[in-house]
Amino acid sequence: SAVISQKPSRDICQRGTSLTIQCQVDSQVTMMFWYRQQPGQSLTLIATANQGSEATYESGFVIDKFPISRPNLTFSTLTVSNMSPEDSSIYLCSAEGGKGLTDTQYFGPGTRLTVL
Amino acid sequence: AQTVTQSQPEMSVQEAETVTLSCTYDTSENNYYLFWYKQPPSRQMILVIRQEAYKQQNATENRFSVNFQKAAKSFSLKISDSQLGDTAMYFCALYRGTSYGKLTFGQGTILTVHP
């Protein structure tokens, strides 16, 4: 399966600042995704990161708050902008294609974000 | 709209015993994929098992097997010979495939394996 890494693994940030999370896959993949997991909850899809075009956002998530880049087939970033304590969550990226099974998403280890 | 429901918030089992986690789902599609993911305290989401809806045969992966009932829209996970390392949150998920992208998760079941 694809091996996915994320940086940072965790961070503590001040209200009003921004944090960029990086996601790196060890092979070229067709699709990359960003999810949010609030404490004790399930995963919610934020957006699909499209290579060479703007990300596709789910209802309730907007580009100004969660800008996403995907400059190539192995890398994506998610920025959490103008953070508030409500943004404290685990943020996970996933990828499909590459070395893994088709129609199957593999996940990175997640980034635990705490906003004070 | 797709929905996935896990009705057991928490389960526990003794080491070496068998446990079954329940999952029901709803979709209007005929072709889709179902997954069980495991999330231990390390928070890494790990793929446990995958089932293609067009396959009648239940998927198995070592100690993990599923009971897929397409007509009933039921997809349970059986863990045999439970081990302490199986302690984790387990998520059932539904996927329509690459063309649609969105993976829909259930609420999760916390499984604790006791020595």
Enumerate the spans of chain A where pLDDT stays under 50 for 5 or more consecutive residues: none
Q: How many strand segments of chain A?
A: 11
Residue share in helices of chain A?
Answer: under 10%
Distance between the termini of chain A: 36 Å
Number of helices of chain B: 0
Q: What count of helical segments of chain A does DSSP give?
A: 0
Quote the average pLDDT of chain A: 93
Rg of chain B (C-alpha, Å): 14 Å
Query: Biggest β-sheet of chain B: count, sense, barrel?
Result: 6 strands, mixed
- How much of the sequence lies in strands of chain A comes to over 45%
Strand elements of chain B, count: 12
Q: What's the quaternary structure here? A: heterodimer
User: What general outline of chain A do the C-alpha atoms trace?
Assistant: globular
The class by helix and strand makeup of chain A works out as mainly beta
Largest interface summary: A-B, 27 and 21 residues
Distance between the termini of chain B: 41 Å
- Mean pLDDT over the residues of chain B: 93
Q: Radius of gyration of chain A from the CA trace?
A: 13 Å
Strand content of chain B: over 45%
Q: Indicate the low-confidence ranges of chain B by residue numbers.
A: none
Structural class of chain B: mainly beta
